[in-house]
Amino acid sequence: MRQILDSEVAQTVTSNNYLLPSSVDIMCPHCKRLVTFNLKWSSLNKNLVYTLSRCAGCGDISYFIIVDFKEINEQKVLKGSLFVYPEADRRKAIEGINEVEDFSDGLHRAYESTINVYNTREWTATAVLCRRLLEGITKTLLPSEEHDKPLAKQLEILPNKTDLHRPIMTLAHAIRKGGNLGAHFDLEKEPNEETTKLMVDLIDYLIEYLFILPQRIEELNNYVEKMPKD
Ligand SMILES: [Zn+2]
């Protein structure tokens, strides 16, 4: 289930003091086309209303639900939050990216645009934005005197300018130190839920970094290498 934004609501009607969306422009959860769903609401109830609508493209049915009606003005007009089910599998930003201080505002914007454009199924534009984002990331990691070099050259010198091994070594040592708490009996320093949750998280990152990521990168590279050159 996904919440539909006000900006995706094309038209509204007011019925018995309820402000209701009568059509929405969204990506069909089934065929992924951007289509207009017309919404006809019947029984109104302050807690929940629902309806269904058929995609004009593929003919499949999606369900629309409004919950949590609230008064929005002095005329006591009620407006609720609109949701659609099922949810089209839209790509989302990688978890935790908002907490990374070194990922600048410019990179955030470039990354967000890339994901938004991907979700609109504009493949050429997405590929261009990915390349632009790679340039942005490389520039962030390299000193300014290297920025004018071609991207391939910048990537080549990247390992000399930034310590690519450091994060993984810090990670491995953190797990070792946490493990020592459990392995050596010490009443003062017993591992608790918080420590062990963190350790399992770290193990997940380690497995991802050492096993999953290299395999995915290899598969992706083989795929790209096999693509026709023009
Ligand atoms: Zn459809």
Structural features, described:
8% of the residues are buried. Strands 1, 2, 3, 4, 5, 6 and 7 form a seven-stranded mixed sheet that branches. This protein starts with a strand and ends with a helix. By secondary structure, it is an alpha+beta fold. The structure holds zinc ion. Zinc ion (ZN) binds next to loops.
Summarize the structure.
This protein has 230 residues and is of the alpha+beta class. It is built from 5 helices and 7 strands; from the N terminus they run βββββββααααα.
Give the key terms.
single chain, 230 residues, alpha+beta, 7-stranded mixed β-sheet, 5 helices, binds zinc ion
Q: Which secondary-structure class do the elements indicate?
A: alpha+beta
Percent strand: 15-25%
Our Rg estimate from Cα atoms comes to 25 Å
Taking the sheet with the most strands, its summary is:
7 strands, mixed
Which molecules other than protein and nucleic acid are bound? zinc ion
Reconstruct the topology from this structure.
Elements: E1 2-3, E2 9-15, E3 18-27, E4 34-38, E5 48-54, E6 61-71, E7 78-85, H1 105-119, H2 123-141, H3 151-161, H4 166-183, H5 193-226
Parallel strand pairs: 3-7
Antiparallel strand pairs: 1-7, 2-3, 3-4, 5-6, 6-7
Helix pairs in contact: 1-2, 2-3, 4-5
